[in-house]
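Section: Multi-chain targets

For targets with more than one molecule, the full set of components is provided together so that the structure can be written out for the assembly as a whole rather than chain by chain. Components appear in the order listed by the source. The example entry contains two components.
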Amino acid sequence: MAAFELRDATVSYDGNTVLNRITLRIERGERVALVGRSGVGKSTLLHLLYEQSRATSALVPQDPGLVRSLSVFHNVFMGRLNQNSIWYNLTNLVMPRRQEVDDIRALLVSLEMDDKLFQPAGELSGGQQQRTSVARALFRKGDALLGDEPVSSVDEHQSQSVLRSINAAYDTTILAMHDVDLALAFCDRIVGLDDGRIVLDSAAADMKRSDLMPLYRGEVTGL
Amino acid sequence: MTYTLNAPSVRASFGFVGVALFCLFFADIEVTTLDPWTEFERMVIGFLTPDFFAIDQLGEAILQTIAFAVLGVAFGAGFGFVLAPFFQHFAPLRWACAFIRAIHEIFWALIFIQMFGPSPITGILAIAIPYAGICAKVYSEILEEADLRAVRTLPVGTSRIAAFFYAKLPDVWAYMKSYTFYRLECGLRSSAVLGFVGLPTMGFYLESFFSEGYYSEASALLILFFLIIATIRFWMRPKIAWVYVVGAAIVVAFAETTSRFDWAHVARFFGEDIWPAPVRTAQEFGLAFWSSLGDWGWMLFSTQALPGIVATILLTQIALIGTGFLTLLFYPIISERFFGRVGRTIGHGFLVVCRSTPEYILAYIFLQLWGPSMLPAIVALSLHNGAIIGHLIGRHSNELERRVDAPHGLNLYAFEVTPRIYGQFLAFLFYRWEVIMRETAILGVLGIHTLGFFIDSAIADIRIDRAMVLILMTALLNIFVDICSRRIRTRLRLRTSPEVV
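Its structure, encoded as tokens over all components, is:
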């Protein structure tokens, strides 16, 4: 059984068609990159897939959605609010549990964020906020991770370590990416969109950077 | 072509000024004391020579005032906090909160004194009940402003309580904290005033100092009070709030009071006192009963409620315009656009004194000077509220953009700054309208013939049934003004952030 499946999905806002008759099937264990110019419907497609699997997928939204006055620790812990009793959650808010602190610190080490553990999220840089939001999705644990430009505001070196962490924690990933090299390096299937349609869908191993360039010039017109 | 003077806000202002002038025509304004100046001189000398030696009395007055304020605000804010998340979703809760906050602390105290005497429980409930209504409303408005993006990222199945405490509350916690500090400041004023109806707080001592002409002692007490209000942020911290609550409970519990809790009083209050006299004495509920109940109601309405309502409205409308005028006069004295550092410091000092002194105490002082008429009340309400809004507008004027070639002096005032702050000014003024009316009603206790006068007299005559009807009338009048104010603010598109007023 497929992990995600869309058949003839069409989405429009105010009369503008954002996604036009999309048919897509993603198996468990696949690592999919959604690529294409901005505004072609990557985010919409990603959210459509997330809506199908809210209960089991973790999401790294484009806007990190952090609580600015809470620490990095608490923001990451929020990924598991549904897995504990209310009493556990509330006491952990006031007095963090050692076990949780250790787990989250270990997670932050791989993202090079462990020195910020108890810093309020509002004081972090954009890249640090994005890594906090990734950490929250990693901490959540689930069948799949869906990321909307999860490394758009971190530098190239850190992008690689963030994506490595994501791949280490999840077998199934769907990432909207604008960086073609990262998409080719960390995903095994490339789905290209243009004007609300899927115009390219093939294994990453078969592709080079130059194969994807026409997509960004609007020159790929169909499968 | 439209002229500036034809703008809706200007037309509304002229309308309200017109109403106030009309009210002034019917208002009773006169100086009835024979020689106000001699007394004034003694008072000024007394205030300039504060006497801190009556340390026992001063200490006790201040300690009790703080203790009642801390406990009242703690319970009020606590209940308000619990109710706030449901406030927007449950209309009966909104009505109940509007009702309990429409009744002034002093009226609550007058009610509870009938049941519990001038005991700690009376003082705490008198503050906690209306404050719970106010806090529920304001906290819920603050929560509405929370950024919901964090809530949307929570995993499916997160309980509402966890979502509230993790994703919603932390975002607005700072605003809640600063509003609660402001409430504590209000609570200190309320607590001080409760002394005038017999609780062991500041008002009680002030009244006795004034009646004996001990103006230096009164001055010392007021100075201590200003200091305590001005330093709230240094002595109160959220993390040690519980220490204050426990301390306050001990102070209040060991205060010397003559009253003892007695269920019989409570039972009598609900079983007998509050029922209209004809109901209590009725043998049978026939035609004669209904006719006597009708007579009772008509008597109460025509001889007390109606004159009380008329006087309350007259005084409120005059004081509202007085507040407006004083605000426009006061705001430049703390504005960087008009005065230097020295001038502003003096201005701040003056405004702090005016806004830290409760209207009731100001009115009480002016009443000693000029005798009973509406004059002391108008001056007191205008000074206190004018200082509060003047402070906010003055700060607001500092944030306006500056023009390098701006005019100076009166031209700057009339052409540059005042037109720009006018919308904000009206918003605050209409926001205060309801507060001014609440206070106007209460000033009746001092002998001005507003609703409070008739309520106080009814209680003095042990006619609790009448007092309850009149308090109900007062609450409805307040709710009516609140609705009018909200309509006008919406129509004029005026917005205020709730945490400042």
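Residues 1-56+142-223 of chain A form a domain with the Rossmann fold fold (CATH 3.40.50.300).
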